[in-house]
From TrEMBL:
The lineage of its organism: Eukaryota, Fungi, Dikarya, Ascomycota, Pezizomycotina. GO terms for molecular function: hydrolase activity, acting on ester bonds. Keywords: Hydrolase. Pfam families: Fungal_lectin_2 (PF18647), Lipase_GDSL_2 (PF13472). This is SGNH hydrolase-type esterase domain-containing protein. One of its GO terms (biological process) is lipid metabolic process. Residues 47-249 form the SGNH hydrolase-type esterase domain. InterPro entries: SEST-like (IPR037460), SGNH_hydro (IPR013830), SGNH_hydro_sf (IPR036514).
Length: 651
């Protein structure tokens, strides 16, 4: 049997082809077929699919570029030793006699169809990830993120990807199920793994990061929330179609095997902070501020060079001649891309679905084309067209593959229970209360603010429904030291929302975590999380670089200088005016004391406390000779809830 079609678990990861290796005798284990958690029934199994199955970039590459065969080998397909199939194979244990690892980076359903045809029959288990490449995801990532050349090009690929998703994807997947039927043992199991949403969409913080490897002109709009939502929506739609395919396959009485859908998507945003563009992320990779990131990503933190480049780009954008030239190039790029896209077999056919079914027939298996395909070639090479160090971006990293493997194995237990006509094992309702301060967090916020905010949050929760559960979040006092995220997440099958329960849970998180601490007399709140069954309530202050230790009393510094016709003031503070940009605290009191006439008002929050522990600075002008009666005696500061110990100067 060819190297790509037969792998024994003891030899995967070597530096040479595995063809011709003899199987190593293994000690048999006692079979307990009435226990769905016992995997000893799995003797012959396979993993097929795309780059998510191959594990591009996760761990070390399998195979050897010199000794491997020229096509469909470990090296050529970018298979890696910390991919989820390798992790699953280790977990299945010594009962496995044959492990067929055929997943290949870049393969669409046509290529995966060919992988299935290469499998032997009478398999106990098959796991797969398939469908994403039918949406031309590699071209989406290229045109919309890594090498953007203008919004029109990105939008053109998005339009075709959406059309593919709506017209052909489900039919392609059903063809894979039909092909698997000839390979499965009676009472065997198929596990179809889903995909996960790449991006957090809570803030625009990562839109200005350096995501592009190259660009043909400046002015790229970056990874805005709107664009991130498009990528995430594709993932949700793919997973919904996978779910439909699994349900229809399970209902097909002609199939004598069982199938399960392994959906790891909710874990990435509800279980951990696993998405790119998380507000706590810095743009670095790896990122110590976001240790649970589940995907490979470029290092996108902004350097001084990036800032200088953007400054020059902004200057170039002001040149009308250059702007016209860029617009002309953008239109040429858009037309060329659309010509490339719409010349595919799909868009030349008056009946795309029928064309796909024909192309996926055993006599001529092939999905429709994507931009960049080789002309007149039905099955494209199984490479994503980029070196692995680039191509691995937007794919699960090592941690992501352990997550996929964990969910796949749990789904395997549940599906095996269905084979045995047993109730799947279940865990007791989870009730876990976590205080972020106990986990070492240094982000905190005002008790008065949070106790006001949670009531507003619980009142305005908007419940949605969907196969992946639902969540609602809101950020309060964004950009200030009191910036705080409130979130409720509900996992399926639960859908209901109880406002009174939300109020009770949020109040307990805020006031039950941080109270009666003699080292915290100002009662700062660190927040926390309460997981109760399918419901997760979260309160997370987000400014981790505030003054530390927490202030025991408000403080600051003040200077007021006579400038002949006006007084000029610099006022710094910490522990007060921490949410309102000084508007309802400092400015209000200054105007009240001065009697009007506060001008040139500027208020700035620092990204982190300065060397003196100050968190903000206010500058303003007043009529002359007000320092003694308003600022040096701390009248304004006391009225605003703060203190500066006087105000030096000569006004």
């Amino acid at each position: 049997m060819a190297a790509e079609a037969y792998v024994v678990p003891y030899s995967v990861g070597g530096n040479s082809s595995l063809a011709g290796r003899s199987k190593v005798p293994k000690q048999r284990v006692k079979r307990q077929n009435n226990n769905p958690s016992d995997f000893s029934w799995v003797q012959r199994w396979a993993a097929v699919g795309d780059s998510y199955t191959a594990g591009i970039g996760s761990g070390k590459p399998l195979g050897n570029p010199i000794l491997d065969e020229p096509e469909n080998t470990n090296w050529y397909c970018s298979r890696y030793d910390t991919s989820w199939p390798m992790i699953v194979n280790d977990a299945l244990g010594p009962s496995v006699d044959e492990f067929h690892f055929l997943g290949c980076s870049g393969d669409r359903t046509g290529g995966i169809y060919q992988q299935i045809l290469k499998l032997p029959t009478n398999l106990d288990l098959v796991m797969l990830t398939a469908g994403g490449n039918d949406l031309c995801l590699a071209k989406l990532i290229e045109k919309c993120v890594l090498v953007p050349s203008g919004d029109n090009s990105c939008d053109s690929v998005i339009a075709v990807a959406q059309a593919n998703l709506e017209t052909i994807l489900k039919g392609n997947m059903m063809q894979l199920m039909s092909a698997l039927d000839a390979k499965m043992k009676d009472d065997g199991v198929v596990i179809y793994n889903g995909y996960a949403q790449f991006f957090n969409t809570e803030s625009e913080s990562c839109a200005n990061q350096a995501w592009t490897y190259a660009t043909l002109w400046p002015g790229n709009s970056g990874l805005t929330i709107a664009r991130r939502n498009i990528f995430n929506d594709f993932v949700v739609q793919i997973n919904n179609i996978i779910r439909e395919v699994v349900e229809e396959t399970a209902a097909n009485t002609n199939y004598n095997w069982k199938i399960g859908f392994s959906n790891w998507d909710p874990w990435v945003y509800n279980g951990v902070q696993g998405q790119m563009c998380d507000p706590d992320g810095t743009g670095n990779y790896p990122d110590p501020e976001q240790p649970d990131l589940q995907f490979f990503k470029p290092d996108t933190h902004v350097t001084e060079h990036d800032i200088d480049l953007r400054r020059r780009e902004e200057e170039e954008m002001k040149d009308p001649v250059a702007a016209a030239r860029r617009a002309a190039w953008a239109e040429i790029e858009r037309r060329n891309l659309e010509t490339e896209l719409y010349s595919s077999v799909l868009f030349n056919s008056p009946h795309p679905g029928a064309e796909v079914r024909h192309k996926l027939d055993r006599r001529a298996p092939s999905p429709p084309g994507c931009p960049g395909d080789k002309p007149n070639v039905d099955i494209q090479p199984p490479s994503i067209g980029l070196p692995d160090w680039v191509g691995k971006n937007f794919h699960p990293n090592e941690l992501g593959h352990y997550t996929i493997a964990s969910f796949a194995l749990q789904t395997l237990v549940d599906t095996r229970a269905a084979v045995l006509d047993l109730t799947p094992p279940s865990c007791a309702i989870q009730d876990k209360f976590t205080c972020w301060q106990g986990d070492g967090s240094r982000a905190y916020a005002s008790a008065a603010r949070l106790n006001e905010d949670y009531q507003d949050f619980c009142t305005h929760v908007r419940r949605t429904s969907g196969p992946n559960g639902w969540s609602f979040s809101r950020v309060y006092h964004e950009g200030t030291p009191d910036e705080t995220l409130f979130r409720i997440s509900v996992a399926p099958p639960s859908t209901n929302y109880d406002r009174n329960e939300c109020l009770a849970k949020m109040s307990r998180i805020i006031n039950g975590c941080d109270g009666n601490d003699p080292n915290n007399p100002m009662n700062w709140k660190f927040g926390g999380e309460w997981v109760h069954g399918d419901y997760t309530y979260t309160v997370s202050p987000r400014k981790h670089k505030r003054r530390w230790p927490v202030p025991r009393e408000p403080g600051g510094a003040c200077e007021g200088w006579w400038k002949v016709f006006y007084g000029e003031y610099d006022l710094y503070g910490y522990g007060w005016a921490s949410h309102d940009w000084g508007q309802q605290t400092l400015l209000k009191e200054a105007r009240s004391c001065v009697g009007g006439g506060v001008t040139e008002w500027k208020f700035e929050y620092f990204d982190q406390a300065d060397a003196n522990g100050m968190e903000w600075k206010a500058t303003f002008r007043t009529p002359i000779w007000v320092r003694q009666r308003c600022f040096n005696n701390n009248k304004v500061q006391f009225g605003a809830g703060g203190f500066t110990g006087g105000c030096r100067g000569n006004d």
